[in-house]
Amino acid sequence: MAIEDDLEKPFIGSHGKSSISIVLLSTLVAVCGSFQFGSCVGYSSPTQSAIIRDFNLSVSEFSMFGSILTIGAMIGAITSGKISDFIGRKRAMRLSAVFCIIGWLSVYFAKGARALDVGRFSAGYGIGIFSYVVPVFIAEIAPKHLRGGLATLNQLMIVCGSSVAYILGTFVTWRTLALTGLVPCILLLLGLFFIPESPRWLAKVGLEKEFGSALGKLRGKDADISSEAAEIQSSIDLLRDIPRTRIIDLFTARNIRPLIIGVGLMVLQQLGGINGIGFYSTQIFTQAGSASVAKIGTIVYATIQVPITIVGAMVMDKCGRRPLLMVSATGTCIGCAMTSASFYLRDGNSDLQWSAPMMGVSGVLVYVASFSIGMGAVPWVIMSEIFPIDVKGIGGSMVVLVNWLGAWLISFTFNFLMDWSSTGTFLMFAGFSGLTVLFVAIAVPETKGKTLEEIQASMDIKKEFCHTSVVG
After folding, report:
1. Staple partner for 69: which of 94, 118, 124, 193, CB 3.0–4.6 Å?
2. Quick one: which of 213, 207, 84 has its CA closest to 138?
3. 406-415 burial code (b ≥16 CB/10 A, e <16)
């Protein structure tokens, strides 16, 4: 069998290494894809003025350059679940890296707008697959008591990638910045040779020997994996009797709740404005203050994301997913309201007009700090946890597609919305952040401390109704 022949057993980890070391190594290799994701997202903000100047682009042309990344990512999202289910999590990450490398080289050698757009589209397709397969891979290899914290490394590395792009972009040319995007791809391609495949995927495709070997490497040589292996295998055996998954199967009583939660969180994450603010933060700081304020604001924006995301990762498995989401969404609402008020004061004749630049910069920084602690990472963690494995591919693809559709909508329309009304744009983002708090309070369950199988069993509306009826 071709898949069996190409499992690429890790070169390390088979000689008694501690369980946590292999899990950490596997996670660190996977999140090189997340770093690549962040590099692509962060690229357009510091390079905007230079690319517009070098190619004499209009606002709409640069908006296309910035947003076509998300169009490629949408297509990557549509195919991500099927690809990773068919060829495995590791090969899917390898494929993503190749598309990103092609994209960066196209941008670097670009002589006109068309080559720029082709490069961004190719990189977008790659990160569209990364955005699904990385959190799923981490969730499938991590022990339950570490899963939340390790999964948050996905968002941490996205933030690190965008932060590095923001900072480097203020010192190097846009072509040089494109070359730096190759580094995480190369590290990922090399690192994949040293880590095992997802045990749950191996079990799903019937490779029982490789499944046991991979799980043993991840849990440690002397660990008793019999209970966990039996639970995973039992879940897989039950799924084998279920007919082949179709899109309509997402709307059954068993799957509709995770679909609503996953799609709802991604829609609200994007309508809160993150990709408009992230793609064009330098422009926002310039409009709120001046060019010097913009440069300082961009560097501060880049640096505060990382430590706050680390804090979120540290507390996720202690505080839980729901509290982090609600605190985070409340903070993004306040940040957007502050930024909206700053533009209102800037455009008016108030005695407080002098405070507008500081309030605008502070509002954006409050927004990004709040987003980084919860709304950035937690929706992806929950997405990777809630879908049963038989619909994880198609359900995850649907959720990621919705996320990238929202990302395209916001990133493409942001400049036009700002021309319409800077005050109104940020007030709208504040409103959606407020709705997020209500949605989490009403619809999102706590998944902290539960196995994937326990979480997925609790999602079945029909079973939950029957249980409630019996208890009643």
Report:
1. 124
2. 84
3. bbbbbbbebb
End-to-end CA distance of the chain: 52
Distance from C-alpha of 428 to C-alpha of 367, rounded to nearest angstrom: 14
H runs (alpha helix) in 6-112: 19-55, 59-87, 89-108
- Of 436, 430, 437, the closest CA to residue 337 belongs to 430
Kindly state the helix (H) or strand (E) to which residue 354 belongs, with its residue range. none
Please state the pTM of the whole predicted model.
0.73
Phi, psi angles (nearest 5°) of residue 37: -55, -50
A 10 A CB-CB count for 56 gives 9
Q: Among 122-136, 305-319, 362-376, where is mean pLDDT lowest?
A: 305-319
Rounded Cα distance, 40 and 104, in Å: 9
What lies within 8 Å, CB to CB, of 290 at 6+ separation is 357
- In the numeric block, the tokens 């297509």 are attached to 75
Are 100 and 185 a contacting pair, CB within 8 Å?
yes
Give tens-digit pLDDT for 293-317: 777 887 888 888 888 888 887 888 7
